[in-house]
Amino acid sequence: MLDWTDRHCRYFYRILSKNAVLYTEMVTTGAILYGKGDYLAFNKIEKPVVLQLGGSDPKDMTAAAVKAQEYGYDEVNINVGCPSDRVQNGRFGACLMAEPELVAECVKTMQANIDIPVTVKTRIGIDDFDDYAFLTNFVNQVSESGCNHFIVHARKAWLKGLSPKQNREIPPLDYDRVYQLKRDFPELEISINGGVETIEQAQEHLKRLDGVMLGRAIYQNPYLLHQVDELIYDDKQAKLSRIQVVQAMLDYVENETQDGATSWHIARHMLGLFSGQPRARIWRRYLSENARKMPIGTELFENAISLMTE
Fold first, then answer.
1. 93 annotated ligand binder
2. Where does FMN bind (predicted)?
């Protein structure tokens, strides 16, 4: 979810669910250790929150993980699933599936220096290395180094010839392979990712697995998250309407836009809030067309609420 699940997005998601575990967009070790910005900042309301880390140098991965723990992150997740050329050129992401020894070294070194868990997000294979033995060899080596939780995107990745978008759609899903992984490694936490579009589908996966990660389904229809607390965590808290969700964001919008953010930095994550509802197009169009005209304060959102309640 590079460039998507930033801190504004995660704050919005926490309004929708108080129990779901939130993940950052992938942040590279270079950005954390040498970048000019603060790439680890988050609002305490986001917790539990996981840093998804991109890198492959054990020393740099460990230094970034130590910083993450100091900031208060609940977990560090190593990205071994992203197939983009930019990521491959940096020697991280899905290409690391071919180097289980290196991933294992990163996990071992990181885990020796921090107290929070180090987990791995991966694919079921890459290119022509896509048989089950390749996957189990990877999981076996990395788990022996101290990783107890794997989040598995149930598609292989083609490192050459397909774009990241195509890699989310063209390689076929193979849920049975992830189910088999859990049967063969019952002592590990195995979560699944890829192609899950509803909470009902997530519930079906949870009959066989330990967790489900939703990405673009939530981004496109964020209100799905509002079902998670009740249907997954059995939390019967009163539900907020979509309008109430927007109202709950207003103080945050006011504070953040006074502190350097713009309305669009926040609004872009909320475009899908009324997905499938009457006047959803009006909501999206109003925010898109007017966010830059009203960059500071809550006027943009208050006007949008008025349009949705006419």
1. no
2. 52, 121, 153, 193-195, 215-216
